Hints:
The chain is mainly alpha-helical. It has one domain. 60% of the residues lie in helices and 0% in strands. The protein has five helices and no strands. The chain has helices at 4-11, 15-37, 45-64, 82-96, 99-110. The termini are far apart.
Amino acid sequence: MIEENDKKRIEEMPEYEAYFFIDAVGAFTWRMRHDAGHGRIEMTPELKAEIERLLESQQYCAQQLSKFGVDPESVKDRENGSYWKWYSHWDNWKKAMSDEEWYAFDKRMSAGEDISEYLPKQKWNEIPA
């Protein structure tokens, strides 16, 4: 179950942080399940509970995306859903950054400094299909 302070933190995330959170949870949970399935790690009750907690938090975060114009139910429509268009927009933004840009962005973000010059110039739903 998601704790109230975690819910509040998720609700207050800027759009780029919501993307980072959703992406990181997906990567972590996939890796843990993959490695457990291949016998490289043990799927302990504690790890299983942590995966379930993270996935619940990820789902809660996806529900909050409506404030960015994303239909949370569209997660189910991988080909046409606004969620996947939103996710692809942010994923492409991240992948297009050079290592130098990423390090500069991360340094500023970690220091709480202005990062606007690194963020996409258009919103996910302003880009022609």
